[in-house]
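Data deposition worksheet. Section B asks for the primary sequence of the deposited chain exactly as it was used as input, without tags or linkers unless they were present during the calculation. Section C holds the resulting structure in token form. Section D is free text for depositor observations; keep each observation to a single sentence. Incomplete worksheets are returned to the depositor.
Section A, Depositor: J.P.
Section B:
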Amino acid sequence: MVGAAARAGLLGLDRPRERGGHGLDPHELGENAARLGSVCTSLRSLLTVGGMVSAAVDRWATAAQRAHWVPRLASGELIAGLAATEPGAGTDLAGVETVFEDTGAETRVSGRKLWVSFGVVADVLLVLGRAEGGLQAALVTTDQPGVTVEPVVDQLGMRGARIAHITFDRARVPREQLIAPAGFGLGHVVGTALDHGRYTVAWGCVGMARACLHDAARYAVRRTQGGIRLSEHEKIRAGLGRCRVEVDAAQALCERAARYRAAADPAAIMATVAAKYAAAEAASEVGAHAVQVLGAAGCAPDSRVGRFFRDAKIMQIIEGSRDIAELHLGDQLLTEIAQREGGES
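Section C:
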């Protein structure tokens, strides 16, 4: 899957053409994420993770670093992963304990990272750690002594995402692989990566939710019980109607985020948070409803709605949990009201 996706050009869709990408605008990128999401969350995750690392390097690296890394990431020559989460630092990444040790000639990284998507096959990882001057981000290659990859299997969802826990034991980081100064690691470098990730996750969830809605409606039309089609039951039709509204509303928020991102509007950050929140909720609700409509067929090992039902729960957690998203959106609303009332007084 990884090699085929790279050959298809999926890993550099929105990177500039002059750096090996396809130059897609935010809406085009989102539509591609939705199409992938309607087929396989893990495949869409490959687009997301590669895009997160490329976006962060493209924005915060030096010109020489961009020229070296971005084309190789965009072409799929190198598969990238984001290594930020730790046993004691998930939602609050400021608490990471991974250490960047400056030895004079180079930097050595030591620590343990969890839930690294495509960590099993990644050639290079964007790692967040603690340096003397603050949190730092660096590109760490995985084919060296001091990097131990522990595959994760049988997790709830995203079972094709080749997830790994990764331990670093004084792994080598040449100076030219440090991205931005110390102190910029979280709010700038990883912040850019997470914002990009939320955006493609949001669109991917729309694709997932729409696929579940399609499967549920199709099953309701075809399935009969006691000589009556499921679709003839008012409760079934009403549930499908609610699901359709949830999917369409989530897509509308994704499209709004796309417009803001295309215009480089500062409001794009919170619009993306809202889109990801709504789309993940829609994927979860519609996935659950689709499994209910399909019944035993929805619980079968080869059930697409069953797979998406599991994946959707992961989407409500990654790139900012739904609880944190609600908090940020509530804070934004209160700030807007305070500013409006202050201007009127």
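Section D:
The radius of gyration is 21 Å.
Residues 185-222 form the longest helix (38 residues).
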